[in-house]
């Protein structure tokens, strides 16, 4: 169960990138995870609220997009998508394949922020009072 | 409320991967072949490694090992009986080794340096990972060869159950072959399953107790090292 470590890395990366958007609040984080990345999306989702607590990511949604394994089949001369991860054979010709083109990704694709900075909200409130 | 989508396209384990790339470069520079041994707890990684270290040393090779466990230095003490320099890494609950732990434990290890070159005094560095067939597969340690290990007592379908690890391995070692018969180990099925998950993978059928299959393993190590230097 290394999902907590993985989620912690996500929080670090997004927080670092957020420096460019002071005061922004994160609404959603989108991941691309290969079917052979050895992470369980449900476990990531379970750890996410714990790891984001007290960070600018608190309260945001985690969206995990799972990518199927794609191998290059030399005899067919093309990339083929595997139906599962129990057999690394071309589903077209049945030949074993070892040239993986997709399936191990573990990437933060993007995140969505609410751009209205908190400090502006605070300023509005102050002005309203006056 | 104005929302904006920020494209990040960043590897989640980027920090580990960058550190591992640096380690890989330093292993190359030192001319040391580094192997990462991964298996379930109880497969016999330590017994296999102990024999490997002892025999390689007897043949004049310079070897060292890092060994990962949640707690205790029992394995390091066992491995050190081979005479090779060994360092224990205690992860205190973390289920895998990562590149940072390796870098930290290699840093300033005088026993394996030569003429001011870190690791320069070595031909082979073995890293025995924490017993776990899942999490270690995500963490690159900069190794040249990842070895997936399986004992005859574990069941022939392990490669199918843990495809991530077996698919990312460069070689596979079956341990405890001396127990194959009493355990009713179905060798053909095990080999077929490994090949199904990692077509063409090199497989070594070994026994650390009897020494069976070790000669092929040593030949492989020597060839891999020669191919990289």
Explain what this protein looks like in three dimensions.
With 130 residues, chain A is of the alpha+beta class. Chain A folds into two domains: 3-68 and 103-129, 2-Layer Sandwich (hypothetical protein PF0899 fold); 71-100, no CATH class. Chain A has helices at 3-17, 41-52, 118-129, and strands at 25-34, 61-67, 70-73, 78-81, 99-102, 106-114. The longest helix of chain A is centred in the first third of the chain and has 15 residues, at 3-17. Chain A starts with a helix and ends with a helix. The model of chain A is unreliable at 121-126 (pLDDT under 50). The mean pLDDT of chain B is 95. Chain B starts with a strand and ends with a helix. Chain B has 229 residues and is of the alpha/beta class. Chains A and B meet through helix 1 and strand 6 of A and strand 1, helix 6 and helix 8 of B.
CATH class of the largest domain in chain A: Alpha Beta
What is the correct CATH architecture of the domain at 14-148 and 213-228 in chain B? 3-Layer(aba) Sandwich
- Number of H- or I-type helical stretches of chain A: 3
Strand order of the largest sheet of chain A: 2-1-6
Mean pLDDT of chain A: 89
Residue share in helices of chain A? 25-40%
Order of helices and strands of chain A: HEHEEEEEH
CATH topology category name of the domain at 14-148 and 213-228 in chain B: Rossmann fold
The most extensive interface between chains reads: A-B, 39 and 35 residues
CATH top level label of the domain at 14-148 and 213-228 in chain B: Alpha Beta
Number of domains of chain A: 2
What's the assembly state of these chains? Answer: heterodimer
Uncertain regions spanning at least 5 consecutive residues of chain B: none
Alpha plus pi helix count of chain B: 9
Distance between the termini of chain B: 59 Å
What percent strand of chain A? Answer: 25-35%
Give me the strand/helix succession of chain B: EHEHEHEHEEHHEHHEH
Work out the number of β strands of chain B: 8
Main beta sheet strand tally, sense and closure of chain A = 3 strands, mixed
